[in-house]
Write a structure and sequence with these properties.
45% of the residues lie in helices and 13% in strands. It is built from twelve helices and eight strands. It has helices at residues 21-33, 53-67, 82-94, 112-125, 136-139, 145-151, 167-176, 189-197, 212-223, 227-243, 251-259, 279-288; strands spanning 4-8, 38-41, 73-76, 99-103, 130-134, 157-162, 183-186, 202-205. The N and C termini lie far apart (39 Å).
Amino acid sequence: MIKGSLVALVTPMTVQGEVDWPALDRLVDFHLENGTDGIVAAGTTGEPSTLSFEEHFEVIRRVVARVEGKIPVVAGTGSNSTKEAIALTRYANKVGVDYCLISTPYYNKPTQEGLYLHYKAIAEASDLPIILYNVPGRTAVDMHNETVLRLAELDKIVALKDATGDLERGKVLIDAVADTDFQILSGDDATACELILMGGSGNISVTANVAPKQMHEMCAAALEGDTSKAHQINTRLMPLNTGLFVESNPIPAKWALYDMGLIDLGIRLPLTPLSTKYHTTIHEALQLAGVIQK
């Protein structure tokens, strides 16, 4: 069972756009020191669409090596090519990750049957448990609840990261799997607190990149049913939960980490550094969350 605050880790880069491997090690240490419950390596926040296969593999391998089994590592192994997703997943199987996170195929816009067969093929090729990832705002395809429940019947498929932000829809799924081991995780920071209080198992979080301690504490309180404490922490985090999406993720998160002195400004085209007009918004959100003092 995977629970709590899992960071959707950025991939730090130099200003020239090369992966900054020492900075990646430092980020992993930062999360180990601040209570993060799990790390997602090379998930969509980690810019895998512009990483080479070799870089994608190395990000996963390096995070596993740095974590040393202290917390679960989830590898992002999704692709809009089923064959490529299987290759990425098989690699992750070899290097010691605990789960694979697989987004719905982007651009192709498969049918629900196509989605089912895509995930079924990957599950049959994997020795590891698989977390489904539904993020229609980024992929232009929406995996319906009926398809999720159908996939939940497969042994290797153990959870869903739901980034729809639709709490009513999430509650339907939570109720439907209540008597099973299948878990519902939030993938939407702004609604994660409420989803967990409804019975969700945790949050795969962008905000946790910059506020790992606070996000861990919010998720822990919600999982314990401490509504007052969870809401209190969530209120302080909300400017980050929304501010980190003023431009396409991970643009604001990378700038926030730069503002905190943890990484360089590097990001790969076609993404560009955060627009100057949003710098104050993000800086003030970091202050409100108690991440930085001034």
